[in-house]
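Memo to structure team: turn this sequence into structure tokens by end of day. - J.P.
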Amino acid sequence: MKPYYILLHRALVNVGDFLIGARTKELLEAVRPDRTIIVGEAWRPLDLQFDLDVINNAKAIIIAGGPGYVNHMYPDIYPLMSNLEKLEAPLTYLAGGFNSVPAPIEIIYKFRFSDGSRQLLDKMTDQGRKIGTRGFMTKQVLDYNGYPQAVMVGDPAWYHLPSLGQEFVPPKHLRTIVFTPPANKPYFDQAKQILAYIVKEFSNCSSSSEVIVSFHRGIDADFARFAESQNCKVVDVSGNISHLQFYDSCDLHVGYRLHAHLYFLSLRKPSYVIAEDFRALESLNTLASFGFSGWYVDRIHSESGTQQWNAYLAPSLPKILVEQIVNDRRTRFSRFAGLGTTIDSFYHSSMKPFLEQLP
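Reply from structure team:
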């Protein structure tokens, strides 16, 4: 049998996780044709999926991306094996991300991993082996926790292989607009305002424009009713990567789902993301992509002298966001020029070398 990797994913419902898994497999097959890819499930223990000799004879065990660099990543998020000492194959994380509830940016310097998670990270970085992050904030988190082996490689969803080498071409028309609602209900009122602004703006511009509200984790009945009241089509794309294919024929994405945003950008299409948490904020920071934070932080100094904060929804965001889209449309989305070059550069300087150095 040809040497093989075991690729672990967490694709259950959220179509973004299916996208990460699919793009990771495509990248490995393109860059490492010398390896067969065996796919497993990251949320289940390895020894419940494979014989121990299959596990330990793998050239590497690779965990696909996702916001997995969290305090309790092992054993809660990635159970792997109850005794990591029995795991002999090299283990790495490709393009993992850090996540946090809305907080000041300094949280990346204060975050600490649990003892169990440090045990896993120590295993991954044994003998100087590298681990991948999908953004620079996550790399900083790992650096400050004593893991300088972390390398920023980007999110696998950035890299649509057929689009590498192509530059952004502004759409001639904005006939089909995709809007993705937030995952977190506290953002629903803000999202409804944005959707209403978008429907009004594009219905004024063209009677043929259609706004499609796309749910990545299953339909929320309340938000779907509101979308239908705005004459929007409602679709559920959860559960299968093939459900995203209709995005290929759409012209613009606006919304809260990070991997809808990255899917559009990877195809060199315009997209604007509203960050609900650090996952999308990191993408905005790393890729210099287009969108806004959905919250702002009000700092408070307590009587004890420690700094605390409260997070609030950004009240002016709906109007500001739609005005930005209108202005970009008038300039034929000139701010997106160079998008393809940026993604290509990260691929050739970061992702491809990381995959090439794997065992």
